[in-house]
Design brief:
The chain has 1 helix and 7 strands, in the order E-E-E-H-E-E-E-E. The protein is mainly β and about 110 residues long. Strands 1, 2, 3, 4, 5, 6 and 7 form a 7-stranded mixed sheet that branches.
């Protein structure tokens, strides 16, 4: 692996539920992007912000829970969308999004042994 290329970072398994309802679309340039809008609690929001900062300018592998093919793409900065639908359970509504999504075979070729 070239020194300038960062290894792909796996989307944390404890965050898999956050991608329920994740939608993929193509822009006018043909590049794919994906997003999901969710209600979130303060603790998870903090952890998700830390993860987003860690993976900035790196590819993230998204593994679907159903075992279908993976996607890789760069995570965008989280966007606050306002109040949660149920403020007794969640603090706010956010958008998790990725750009430049590509199909991936789910194989980590640079795993440390």
């Amino acid at each position: 692996m070239p020194l300038t290329q960062n290894p792909i970072v796996e989307w944390p398994t404890e965050f898999l539920h956050l991608l329920a309802g994740f939608e993929v679309a193509a822009g006018g340039d043909g590049k794919r992007f994906g997003r999901v809008d969710i209600d979130i609690d303060p603790q998870t929001l903090c952890l998700l912000n830390e993860f987003e900062a860690h993976v900035r300018h790196r590819q993230v592998r998204l593994r679907p829970a159903d075992g279908a093919g993976c996607l890789v793409g760069e995570m965008n900065v989280l966007i606050g969308l306002g109040a949660a639908a149920d403020p007794t359970q969640h603090a706010s509504r956010i958008r998790i999004s990725f750009h430049d999504l590509l199909d991936d075979d789910c194989v980590d070729r640079f795993a440390h042994t």
